[in-house]
Amino acid sequence: MSDTQPAPGSSGSSGSSGSSGSSGSSGSSGSSGSAASAASAASTAGTAPHTGRGPGRLLVAIYGLLALAATGRSVLQITEYFDRAPVSYILSALAAVIYIVATVGLARGDRASVRVARIALTVELIGVLVVGTISYAFPSAFPDKTVWSHFGSGYGYVPLVLPIVGLWWIRRTSAASSTAEVTTP
Amino acid sequence: MLQPLTVALLVASGLLGVLAVHHLVRRRLVDDPLIITGGVIELALLVQLVVGLAKASAIADGAERATFIAYLFTVLVVIPATIYISIKEKTQWAMAVVAGGALVVAILVARLQQVWSLNV
Q1: Quick check: B119 and B64 in contact, CB under 8 A?
Q2: Could you give the CA distance from residue B34 to residue B49 in angstroms, rounded to a whole number?
Q3: Which chain A residues touch B if contact means CB-CB below 8 Å?
Q4: Which chain B residue lies closest to A42 (C-alpha atoms)?
């Protein structure tokens, strides 16, 4: 019994694994490209495509820092010397709120949060472009600097580059997760 | 403000940055030397907070003093946040976050020194 049991067991397992392996590779050859891209995206972004994992951690960290900086600055501006440039300081506060929303949305990474983050980043990008343009065309409109004036030059143009990178990252992760959802069933 | 402390903080955050980049290149994750370096920096930042608050009245301008105090508190957040992320994240991006955090601490410490020297 002991010498008959291993023989069929080993032959059966080797036969089944060989056949399933060959059929599996040939059967999924059509979708192997998308599966591989989804797998590579998943490996860089953790177990599943998530806006707050992998490279997303750095993005969340930078957004968190900007949220902190913008909040601190606008609280200071509004409490200490609001009369100096009210429009600039209201804009700073608005930017701070947007950065907080973007940070939380990207860090949470579920479908609704990512949608909110995408809106926040779009508003941010438009804000940087509009305020940046106005600050160059009509310098008198913003007597004191905001995060967005001169396209964020005071912050190393990070406020201009960040929403573009962020929107690209959201596109990438949502594309990867949608292909993953298609291939899993 | 307290020049030896500022210099020590800049050196320590530089060391943390070098460690993080080293780990990033060697594909290592967070380990004891990294956390200990971060902890030492955080302690030094707490000392800086106490010294800074004690000396803040030397800055005559109210808005500048508020900026100074805001920086003293803000800089405390960076290291715990980056170490937390580096423990949670299991790819090399964790070390990129720590390296960035070290840079930010150095910039904030330098800014603190700048605000101090311009107003005293």
Answers
A1: yes
A2: 22
A3: 44, 46, 53-58, 60-62, 64-65, 68-69, 72, 75-76, 79-81
A4: B91
Structure tokens at A34: 């998308």
Q: Does B66 lie at the interface with A, CB-CB under 8 angstroms?
A: yes
> What gap in Å lies between CA A65 and CA A61, rounded to an integer?
6
A107 with B97: CB under 8 angstroms? no
Cα–Cα distances in Å, from A9 out to A23, A24, A42, B70?
21, 22, 36, 71
Which ranges of A28-110 would DSSP assign to H, the alpha helix?
Answer: 32-44, 55-81, 86-108
| Contact indicator for A114, A89 with CB cutoff of 8 Å | no
For helices A158-183 and A86-108, the axis angle rounded to 10 degrees is: 30
Q: Which amino acid is at A66?
A: L
* Buried/exposed code over A128-162 (b: 16+ C-beta within 10 A; e: otherwise): beebbeebeeeeeebeebbbbbbbbeebeebbbeb
The answer to whether the CB atoms of A72 and B70 lie below 8 A apart is yes
Chain segment A89-112, per-residue pLDDT in tens: 888 899 999 999 999 999 999 999
Asked whether A113 and A105 are in contact (CB, 8 A), the reply is yes
Phi, psi of B31 (to 5 degrees): -140, -175
Q: Which residue among B63, B66, B93 sits closest to A55, beta carbon to beta carbon?
A: B93
- Residues B45, A34: Cα–Cα separation, whole Å: 49
Q: What b/e string do you get for A46-56 counting C-beta neighbours within 10 Å, with b at 16 or more? A: beebbbbbbbb
**pLDDT, tens digit, 9 for 90 and up, residues A2-21:** 444 444 434 433 333 333 33
Domain chopping of chain A, boundaries = 57-177
What tokens appear for A66 in the block? Answer: 């900007």
Sign of CA dihedral B64, B100, A98, A130: positive
**pLDDT at residue A42 tops 70:** no
ipTM: 0.86
